[in-house]
Write a structure and sequence with these properties.
The chain is an alpha+beta fold and 69 residues long. It is 25% helix and 19% strand.
């Protein structure tokens, strides 16, 4: 895991059940969404965002086409 993604490891470890990925037509990579707080996580660096999403997908975080109910 790179140092850039280390600070986000809670997304796929301790808070794994709260976070999902949402595919949208407006973004190249999925949006990181917290289904408990109903908020998105914005990562300003596109490369870090892509790396975090790749790691989340790699460990089996769910990917949805719309916000889950």
């Amino acid at each position: 895991m790179s140092a850039d993604t280390k600070s986000y490891d809670y997304l796929w470890t301790t808070e794994r059940t709260d976070w999902v990925l949402i595919k949208t037509s407006r973004t190249v990579v999925p949006v990181i969404y917290n289904r408990s707080s109903r908020r998105v996580l914005l990562i300003e660096d596109n490369d870090v965002h892509a790396a975090v999403v790749a790691k989340m997908k790699g460990v089996g975080i769910e990917v949805f086409d719309s916000i889950p109910q």
